[in-house]
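Why VWFA domain-containing protein? Reviewers of the renewal asked for a concrete example.
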Amino acid sequence: MNNTFLNMASIGDFDPLNASIPATKVEITVSFCVLYTQGMGNKEWREFGRTEVIDNTLNPDFVRKFILDYFFEERQNIRFDFRLEKALGGIPGKKCGTIIVKAEELNNCRESVMMQFCGNKLDKKDFFGKSDPFLVFYRSNEDGTFTICHKTEVVKNTLNPVWQAFKIPVRALCNGDYDRYVHDFIGEFSTSYRELSRGQSQFNVYEVVNPKKKGKKKKYLNSGTVTLLSFLVDIEVTFLDYIKGGTQINFTVAIDFTASNGHPAQPTSLHYMSPYQLNTYAMALKAVGEIIQDYDSDKMFPALGFGAKLPPDGRVSHEFALNGNPQNPYCTGIDGVMEAYYQSLKSVQLYGPTNFSPVINHVARYAASVNDGSQYFVLLIITDGVISDMAQTKESIVNAACLPMSIIIVGVGPAEFDAMVELDGDEVRISSRGRYAERDIVQFVPFRDYIDRTGNHVLSMARLAKDVLAEIPDQFLSYMRTRGIKPSPAPPPYTPPGQPLQTQI
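Here is what the prediction returned.
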């Protein structure tokens, strides 16, 4: 049961119950094992859970499920250990067993509902005029307490208000119960989600009752009525719905080859090629790339450089292929990108200035050709310094904001990155020539904030990847939703050859 109270005036700003769930739940079904998860920093394996034991079968189907939080921005390694009473013998040329792992996103509580209400002949509450009514919705908690879950806007000076339609998660409305509001109010009524779901009808015209007036006046009927004008259910789709439907994440790298990085042969250079450890460029590239490559089926990544003089004629380029092939700048896997990066350091001359717009426009050209939701583009820019083409870069970002792409900027080295913070647009939405970006597509982080004091580079890289990738799913969804692009249906689950589909009655 839901409680809805009609109030005479606003009691302060209220943020509706729309906080996003920190992670999607994923259900993993396995044909027996003990499941271990791995720590992000120390890589220690910890037992997460184990299935029940089923005797006397070579094809166990276990009831126990493992529920894990899924995070786009982390590599979540899991290990399956099999425990059998009898050892399996390895016979040459014969298969001795199979494990089938099936991951399924749980879709409970993903519905939202759009509703609109109006009032009719409400009580006059203001001494000199009419009322300023608004609706407040409450849901009941399991412990018997009540929590405000939505408040409409105030409609000034009317006894017949029409409130704006609003959208609210179904989990915010279900399981409510009747309670009394302590502030002065016009009246209240109770309803249920099931009643509301009938839509606009005679069932959803509610008498607004003021208990104080009802107790004092024998002839009191009501303080007006509230009518449900519309009720529309919408299932909230998630990032994983699109990935399961086949959407590809295309990952492009752009690396700063300006002279301010220092000569690669010098240990003080941010591009220093040490035989013993990765430089900060390589660490940032590997950290982000190894997470995002799992969302790209062909594992072929364009890798670009900017701010260098190229052989043989020494021309300055802000959009050159790290593998030396401008017609085909694709590298095989993140290891291939790393190799092309190291080879470029040996062949080009670090120069300048630091221009971002050419590489942003490079990716934008590809993103502009795909508007059906089948692909999304992520550009990683790794840079050390002050940007030289700020106006052009802002223009490029504003243009790219209406395309299926996101930009990650990792700042390396000790420089000030004030311009990067401005490009990030978290505080003030980025604009160019009076035109604001349609959505926020840039995420900036300085790598120095992630250097582990104990020298644990693995932990540094994991923390960096977690923060720079955390916004990608929301940026992705904002593009798909504003374009009305729904995820394609997921392909049917894999059935091993020779196994018939089972039907249970």
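The chain has a mean pLDDT of 80. This is the kind of structural detail the renewal will allow us to pursue systematically.
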